[in-house]
Amino acid sequence: MRGFWPDEKVDRSAWSKNSPIYLLYKFIERRLLIKSEAIVSLTHQAVECFSQYEYLKGHKLNTEVIRTCTDLQSYKLDNISKDKGINFVHLGSVDTAYDVLPVINFFKFFSGKIHSKITFINRDSQIFLETQLERNLIKSSEYKIISANFSEIPILLKESTIGLFNTKLNFSIKASVPTKIGEFLASGLPILCNDFNKDVTNLIKVNKVGLIIDFNNIRKFEEYFELISKLLSDKQLEKRCRNVASEEFNLKNGIESYLKVYKTLAE
After folding, report:
1. What's the sign of the alpha-carbon dihedral 238, 241, 216, 136?
2. 102-154, pLDDT tens digit by residue?
3. Same structural domain for residues 110 and 196?
4. Does one domain contain both 51 and 87?
């Protein structure tokens, strides 16, 4: 399961919770969970959510947590000369599951404190992004909006200092581990994100590979500035990020975990 898909459609404003299509897919989800011999989830929190489903109570589930994987060979720690200051990067969608406006406001604060730039790697919302950045008086010299192919992402990330994103809070996000997390960490980049599920929050806090940020709390921005400055001064940070990517998001390990599940079922 990549997530609670029917609930994602509701949480991201595509379906109504009372619509026939939502009810149909929830029925299908119910049958699949009951009949499954094994369930692969992206998060432990999603597995915990199964206990909320009345129809699964007393039903023994065979579950395995396998993260969204990253091909580590495509992402390197080669040093690229960077401007002084902080180069933020926001990768992927800025709507549906995400709320980018607090991120822009957060960047505006930072650009007023220290020389900073932000790159948005995005295909579908470039006009929206440019409008919002101009509305917030972000200088054109402080941001880039780039449409990139998948093969170009590793190079663009090497030019950055830190990855960030802000998700909308809802039920379905508890089962999500955005692909960008593994890509950021594999590139040696720490992560700034909000507290949207326990798995990601614990991953970042326990391994010290970023900070959990409340992008809507302007009064804490000064505190965040100090914490980020301290984080980036850690000489072991880049290596630590890469190690976490290798342990948690390694494509090779993911393949082996899936094979183990299939072999166990076949036996």
Report:
1. positive
2. 999 999 999 999 999 999 999 999 999 999 999 999 999 999 999 999 999 99
3. yes
4. no
Residue 175 structural domain: 72-248
Return the closest-CA partner of residue 154 out of 222, 81, 71: 71
**Residue 146 is part of a domain; what is its CATH number?**
3.40.50.2000
Question: Are 96 and 208 within one domain?
Answer: yes
pLDDT tens digits for 23-60?
999 999 999 999 999 999 999 999 999 989 999 988 88
- 61, 186: one domain: no
Question: Considering its fold, how many domains does the chain have in total?
Answer: 2
Residue 125 burial by CB count (10 A; 0-12/13-18/19+): exposed, middle or buried?
A: middle
Residues in the chain: 267
Half-sphere exposure of 13 (CA within 13 A, CB side): 6
Q: What is the DSSP letter of 210?
A: E
Instruction: Check: pTM over 0.90? Answer yes or no.
Output: yes
Largest CA distance in the chain: 62
Question: Using an 8 Å Cβ cutoff, are 94 and 123 in contact?
Answer: no
List pLDDT tens digits, range 74-95.
998 865 555 568 999 999 999 9
Taking CA atoms, 90 is separated from 14, 98, 161, 182, in Å, by 24, 11, 11, 14
